[in-house]
Recover the amino acids of this structure.
């Protein structure tokens, strides 16, 4: 079962592993070398990798994947509250719950394709958001969000006689603290991200993955070739739902709090943006997209009027006022305006996302190196 | 010349209308195992409709299509294919974003693994047998050299040959060909005829729709002539060629 990946794939996995594990070193100069933000990168990268298995391979655009992330979060917190602060138990339960929801929602939504499929998934996710927000308050704790309490039973932990800490307990991986903002939390997420990335490569390089791409290319042809596309699509949907549930489980493992806003359509839309920005259907594109969006969200949201005033200090009074007012539109709460503009530019000029940009630059360089033919070179330049 | 006379495909009293237009009227057709059965007729005679009914793309209004004891109009397209019925379309239906090799490997997987197989961790590169089979079938249609290019970049004639390889790799019991040489040069047409002739030795039954009389008369064992949705004549190539009814309806116009 092992082996069989090409040398390039192994190199990619090795490079990816090194980059992820060394993230604290190379992200530090960029101001993002602390665990909380790096955990976020890993979690959203997992979410986007999973989303890409559905959207990138089959072309089915789900607008409701945040629902599975939310289910994973709630399921995880309930395990912490009821049984144990060990993240293994919460993660496994989150996967089971997210998988079941994905199976049901996928089965119904996949009765339609194209825009109707997208709308069905959106409708389901919004329904789940509203139910979590209001009707299911006993389970989700509604507006406040589900959180740990001192009075939680934690049957398993108490039965095993876990030491009583003062205040709320931390989540742990067999004794190693995961929540609380320490490096172990990041490395826990990082290792899971690497495993998820590896599994996604396996799926891309499998006959199953090829069938998913064939469905995207020509579903009618698939039927006349003897394949039933439905189970393939449902399997892809459930796999991507599991990735989303895993992301939700890691969210509560690093910060044991689950809120309904995680299931809102904006959260579903965000993972679509991440995948498209990075490069739909590519292996590393979704990871790049997720990291960039979360990184710049962090930077841009932190800007406020004082910082802007300080930045434009060198300008004369009137101009400074204008510059601050104008740039304030794009930072802080207005970060989404910036994201929207960047997204539009990418979709119009680089429909394949950042990965297409990288491929184009690489093609340009390799052409220049290998070709002496001036005529060919001008053709490339003209393109 | 036939070793047996089993009817493998029976189109039984099929009627089909589109709105007010009667596309097929009481079409009754029996195709014997191992033969090449050509369906000819002028434009709009209902030939493509007839093939679409056979593969489950269009349900008949009345009547049935029976393949080896199974009523085809009651099952789904992928089930029909899994029974061993494969079709080459008039406008090439291929996987444009995939390489030629992948295009041909996919139908081979369908034959080996059935309508669905969940093997997300198995490596495609471990499927050497399927790959070699696909390569030899690409070789057969003369596309081996292009095996790593995307199917979208092929010329129309090449796309048709690719589709032929996609059907042949499934070793179907019944192959339905909708104008397999349309859009091909004379040279490509002749290679396709040669290829189709070799299939006879593989015991494959073929139903072929064709405009090109050169193709029809060099391949067919039996010919049915369709005109305005009805079968007006049926017989050996010689019988059809000499039938006055056919001359009037079809051959008369095109052989001048």
């Amino acid at each position: 079962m092992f082996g069989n990946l090409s040398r390039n794939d192994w190199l990619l996995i090795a490079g990816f592993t090194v980059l992820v594990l060394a993230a604290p070193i190379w992200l530090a100069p960029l101001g993002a070398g602390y665990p909380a933000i790096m955990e976020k990168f890993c979690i959203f990268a997992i979410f986007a990798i999973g989303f890409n298995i559905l959207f990138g391979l089959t072309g089915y655009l789900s607008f409701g994947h945040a629902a599975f992330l939310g289910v994973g979060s709630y399921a995880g917190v309930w395990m912490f509250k009821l049984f144990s602060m060990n993240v293994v138990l919460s993660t496994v339960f989150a996967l089971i719950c997210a998988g079941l929801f994905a199976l049901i929602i996928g089965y119904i939504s996949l009765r339609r394709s194209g825009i109707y499929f997208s709308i069905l998934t959106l409708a389901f996710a919004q329904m789940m958001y509203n139910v979590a927000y209001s009707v299911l308050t006993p389970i989700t704790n509604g507006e406040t969000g589900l959180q740990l309490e001192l009075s939680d039973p934690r049957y398993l932990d108490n039965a095993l006689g876990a030491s009583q800490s003062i205040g709320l307990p931390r989540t742990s991986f067999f004794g190693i603290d995961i929540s609380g903002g320490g490096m172990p939390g990041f490395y826990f997420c990082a290792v899971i991200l690497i495993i998820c990335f590896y599994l996604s490569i396996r799926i891309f390089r499998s006959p199953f993955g090829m069938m998913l791409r064939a469905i995207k290319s020509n579903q009618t042809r698939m039927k006349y070739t003897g394949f039933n596309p439905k189970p393939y699509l449902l399997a892809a949907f459930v796999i991507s739902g599991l990735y989303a549930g895993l992301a939700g489980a890691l969210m509560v493992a690093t910060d044991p709090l689950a809120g309904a806003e995680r299931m809102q359509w904006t959260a579903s839309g965000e993972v679509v943006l991440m995948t498209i920005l990075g490069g739909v259907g590519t292996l590393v594109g979704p990871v790049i997209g997720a990291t960039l969006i979360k990184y710049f969200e962090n930077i841009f949201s932190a800007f406020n009027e004082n910082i802007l005033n300080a930045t434009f200090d060198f300008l004369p009074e009137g101009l400074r006022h204008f510059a601050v007012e104008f740039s304030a539109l794009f930072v802080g709460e207005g970060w989404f305006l910036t994201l929207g503009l960047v997204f539009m530019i990418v979709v119009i000029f680089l429909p394949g996302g950042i990965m297409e940009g990288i491929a184009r630059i690489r093609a340009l360089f390799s052409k220049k190196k290998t070709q002496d033919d001036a005529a060919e070179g001008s053709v490339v330049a003209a393109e | 010349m036939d070793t047996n006379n089993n009817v493998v495909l029976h189109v039984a009293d099929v009627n089909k209308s589109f709105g007010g237009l009667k596309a097929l009227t009481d079409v009754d057709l029996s195709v014997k195992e191992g033969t090449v059965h050509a369906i000819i007729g002028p434009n709009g005679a209902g030939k493509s409709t007839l093939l679409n009914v056979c593969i489950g793309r269009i349900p008949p209004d009345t009547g049935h299509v029976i393949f080896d004891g199974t009523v085809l109009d009651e099952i789904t397209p992928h089930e029909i294919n899994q029974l061993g019925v494969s079709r080459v379309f008039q406008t090439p239906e291929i996987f444009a974003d995939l390489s030629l090799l992948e295009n041909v490997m996919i139908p081979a997987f369908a034959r080996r693994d059935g309508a669905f197989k969940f093997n997300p961790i198995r490596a495609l590169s471990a499927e050497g047998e399927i790959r070699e089979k696909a390569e030899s079938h690409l070789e057969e249609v003369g596309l081996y050299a292009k095996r790593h290019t995307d199917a979208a970049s092929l010329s129309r004639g090449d796309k048709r040959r690719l589709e032929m390889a996609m059907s042949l790799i499934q070793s179907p019991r019944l192959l339905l060909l909708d104008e397999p040489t349309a859009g091909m040069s004379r040279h490509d047409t002749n290679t396709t005829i040669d290829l189709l002739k070799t299939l006879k030795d593989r015991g494959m039954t073929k139903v072929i729709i064709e405009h090109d009389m050169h193709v029809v008369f060099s391949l067919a064992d039996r010919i049915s002539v369709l005109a305005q949705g009805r079968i007006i004549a049926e017989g050996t190539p010689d019988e059809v060629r000499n039938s006055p009814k056919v001359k009037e309806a079809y051959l008369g116009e095109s052989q001048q």
